[in-house]
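Collaborator request, handled under Task 6.
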Amino acid sequence: MCGVTGWIDFERDMRHQRATVRTMAATLANRGPDGEGVWADEHAALGFRRLAVIDREGGAQPMVAEQDNRILAVLVYNGEVYNFRQLRTRLQALGHRFRSRSDTEVVLRSYLQWGERCVEYLDGMFAFAVWDPSRQRLLLARDRLGVKPLYYTCLGNGIVFGSEVKALLAHPLIDAAIDAEGLAELLGYVSTPGRAVYLGMSEVPPGSIVSVDRAAVRTRGYWRLTVREHTDDAETTVATVRGLLEESVTAQLVSDVPLCTLLSGGLDSSAIAAIAHKAGEGSLRTFAVDFEGHTDRFRKDFWHEDPDAPYAAAVAEHVGTDHEPVVLRTAEMTDPVLAANALAAQDLPRPIPDMDRSLHLLLRAVRERSTVALTGEIADELFGGYQSFRDPALLAAGNFPWVAMGFAVAPHGMSTGLLDPGLLRRIDIPGYTAARHAEALAEVPVIDAGTAKDRLMLGVTYLHLTRWLPLLLDRDDRLSMAVGLELRVPYCDHRLVEYAFGIPWSMKGLGGMEKGVLRASVADLLPTSILRRRKSPFPVTQDPGYGQALRDQLEAVFADSSSPVRSMLDTARVDALLRERRPVEATGWGERRDVEMVLQLDAWLRRYRVRIEI
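Structure tokens returned to the collaborator:
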């Protein structure tokens, strides 16, 4: 994994702008601790930070393709292409000669062979930029599911781009600003394709390319979710899911550095660990997060029926992995430095910051022993694991189900309970998210086969895969790359996604349990306790000491007359909460989330010097 950035200007000599691009690349140092590079010519300057995973000696970037002392193309690339060996063989047969063993050179040569259609040949997770001097054209490209991020801003006579927003903000002509729609996108917890929250910024949509020349900036999608009538019976469907998952996991085990898997004890990650151990050579390392005293003090809540640790240990023993729990303490979770690091990794306040901080600590511990980790992310979105797939009231709400769930907590949604009502009315989160929901529904592929329930749930699955999943993938990428760890997502293989998307809802619930078809596909690999375990989200600490720390931090922010978040607060509600002289509710999705959002907004406004234009 790496960080890419660059600046194209058709009226400026970019050879004099190396220092600016180097500064932009420096903001991505955590993504690429193993090396850096800057390349520039008359109208283009590209920057790069490298985390070496494949061909540690030969994959340096920016990578230049030359012929007869003429530059054909220059590439900066972030990601992994899992079919690069097959593509390399194919390209060699077409006359291409290679100087390295890296997938980077395969991507570059693929561009030279197929132009912008090269993305159709690449299987994996990637975001890259190619400068073509002869055409005076920049190509930005992103993988089908959007696992790897890529942002850009049109600037004067060109464009500035980067793997993360912080690289763009390091440019002297770009600052951090946000308007009402940006705040609604942020606080509403949707991810509108192409929207980057910050005013004037865009994100290359998943499965899309953006081409830039003197005439225009053009966006073209090369992949989208489609559906065909599913004619396979249950037995064939189960076998096909198993086969596709095995192919994906096996392809993603390729690495020249230590590799492991994250193991929560849930179905999704347990299946990945079992298949990886079976397909790999030698003992597989697995890691799980836990909280000090969590199992002893655990209390069942709406989301969590039981603690993860015993299940993760059971899977590790059953499969035979080298398992290591990473046990977190409340003092670590409440450390302001950790909160600042998690916020800086994502460049934005996020909906569930305590999970972000615990994930950040887990990934940091994993990075001490491995450079690559496989995760079970997106199986819930793909196979229908969330409660938001099954609650009739949420499905009929006329909004995204997870957004509607937030409206059950507060009129303007989750995490807004301490914000100024007048500000919230101007932002209009219900109206904004309802409009985005209608746009998303209009994109859902139409199919006449199946029952009315099957067609309804196809749409619900589409919403989760295209508007909720990007939030999770972005979080995982940012928090893992912040510690120099490459996180791979086998369930994001586009062949598996395409097949599973078309499985009728009734078949997905095979055996009367959520994700039943996935359970059946790995039934021979896992203990019965795991196969029967209900969905349990990423764990959160239930220590009352965490709630007390939140209260203390809120009191400090509220007492600070220079706090930039004060103008955004419902001061009467904050004052009433603090007068109660008790810890903030340590569990749940109301009070705790409200306080955490205020703390994040304050830190974000300070650190990024955000200008709010409402």
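The cover message to the collaborator said: "The chain has two domains: 2-221, 234-390+469-531. The chain has 25 helices and 19 strands. Please let us know whether this matches your experimental observations."
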